[in-house]
TrEMBL record, chain A:
The chain crosses the membrane at residues 6-22, 34-61, 67-85. Residues 113-134 are annotated as: Disordered. The keyword Membrane applies. It comes from the Bacteria. This is DUF2304 domain-containing protein. InterPro entries: DUF2304 (IPR019277). Keywords: Membrane, Transmembrane, Transmembrane helix. It holds the Pfam family DUF2304. It comes from Cellulomonas chitinilytica.
Amino acid sequence: MSGYGFAIAASLGIVVFLVVLLRSRRVREKYAFIWIAVGIAVAILAAFPELMLGLTSLVGIQTPSNLLFSASLIVLLFVCIQLSVEVSGLEEETRTLAEEVALLRLDVERAAAAAGNPQPGPDASGPGSDASNR
Amino acid sequence: MEQDTGPRLLVIVPAWNEQESLPRVLAELAAEAPAADVLVVNDGSTDDTAAVVRASHHAMLLDLPLNLGVGGAMRAGYRFALRNGYDRAVQVDADGQHDPVDIARVVAMLDEGANLAVGARFAGEGDYTARGPRRWAMSMLSFVISRIAKVRLTDTTSGFRACDRRGIELFAREYPAEYLGDTVESLVIASRAGLTIRQVGVRMRVRSAGTPSQSPGRAAIFLGRAALALLIAVTRPMSAPAHKDAS
């Protein structure tokens, strides 16, 4: 019995911790959501272990712990994939920003050079700088 | 600003830690392509690449704050070309393996109606060879991409290429930072966007520093990654604007 109590306490603790993180804006809702859902689900299962038995026979697995293990592995897998997707998005954003910073810096340097000495180097005042709309 | 003679050409040189070879490349570019503007994209180098470029007064420096890989550096270069109204862009490696003398020949393909011209190492000129699995990988890439582009391309991993305004517009929007994205996937993107691709044989020189990896294990990994890159490139959905302006 105390095992179930521990499970309930731990999962509720996790939910509370995530809410604290959310409140201090250290984690965004889209990442915290799945952990809150998992925490609540574990708490419910710990409070009503018969649910687990019912689920197990429903899915066709013999031992409830096996269902628990496989389900948690699947959840972790999907979270990892979600994080990979988010990291890729961040890398693309970083890339775009780095390109913009470099382009702006070159613009500034060329403007400064043009203001300093009015000798036209490789000139910037090309005709069609507003491309991409034809 | 009235001596606008012909299309404005930008030479884009992606450089990552190339302080040794860059001065010679820049000097040759100044000699061989005096009418073109040269833009060196410093891809977050940790050596004095930026200082070398600033010291030469012929080249402009696009100084990326991080290392983005060749694809990232190239897209930045094409964005510069797009915003500054260049009509044509040529990309040349900073390690000196591309001979600036050949720029005129590659660019000449654009006059003959190509949107994208590739300077190819295996097309008769020079004596560049690759062996073993790496060679198989390159033949596989050539075969598949030739089918997609509907023209025979023998050197799909060449970083020596020229493109016109259409190519600049496309590559300023889409130039993948993936592995092999700067060469193979960009060719697939170009042909799927309807650009005409041609190749011309160029001489490759021995790299000024460093040698390409040739061990069998690495070559096998190269083959695998090349196949994956190609599979993704061919099957991925195209972004919409590439199709819209086919008036």
